[in-house]
């Protein structure tokens, strides 16, 4: 069992803390924030709160502030970091940049997503040379306890940021089209949302659990001259795949620019 702390109690910290609350691997959670409203919310949700230095009493410390606030937090904590595992989730901030301020620390860089709220977080992690096998096992077990996590070389974190950090928002954005048109065609909002979100869950489960490619699923549904084929033809005519590739590449590029 580990004690886990969060510096910054915004969206991602809250999502992680909520999921770790149910984990058998976590004994205590402490959060800090400079925003009093966020701290109040954490307290209302049953979490212990403290200041940034107080969070360092935890064995594992997540830094969950926006990328442009990371250095400020590191400067504040640098003289108090001893044997804690320090995990940054900030997009675009490299382990090397963090090491400039806390060179002797055991540092992980993790790219999580907010779907830890429903125990379906996809995440990837990298670590520095100060981390030993035990550290890696602890972090790997913790992240995999709330979803699926994989170790990647740090130069792959930018693509993971777009692929699984941001993409829940992209899928949610695309769902708005399905929802709008279904409602325009007379289906109730409640039925529409229940149907389409179940489709999304099922699609993910099918591809992941049965280890299938998207084309396997497309070909299973698409029949010659049928409804699905008409939709796929329309997407090909509108070059939806090209558009989405550009969207994805844009977000990878944006992540590289943060550095
Ligand atoms: N949201 C996601 O889905 C997601 C996914 C993957 C990675 N991330 C990464 O997670 C980090 C946080 O994102 P977020 O969406 O959770 O942001 P957020 O909701 O804005 O949360 C950040 C929180 O940190 C507080 N804060 C700022 N400076 C601080 C300081 N010096 N000490 C203590 N608290 C401080 C902020 O307070 P104020 O609002 O008063 O500034 C805010 O409450 C980012 O670096 C992002 O790249 C986010």
Structural class: alpha/beta
> Which percent band covers the strand fraction?
15-25%
Can you write the helix and strand succession as a string?
EHEHEHEHEHEEHEHHHHH
Poorly predicted parts: none
Mind telling me the C-alpha Rg? 21 Å
Taking the alpha carbons of the first and last residues, their distance comes to 34 Å
- The count of β-strands is 8
Q: Tally the helices: what do you get?
A: 11
The level of helicity is 40-55%
| Outline type | elongated
Instruction: Report the mean per-residue pLDDT as an integer.
Output: 96
Catalogue the ligands: NADP nicotinamide-adenine-dinucleotide phosphate
- Placed side by side, the strands forming the largest sheet appear as 3-2-1-4-5-6-7-8
* Main sheet attributes: strand count, strand direction, barrel closure: 8 strands, mixed
Observed structural traits:
single chain, 259 residues, alpha/beta, 11 helices, 53% helix, binds NADP nicotinamide-adenine-dinucleotide phosphate
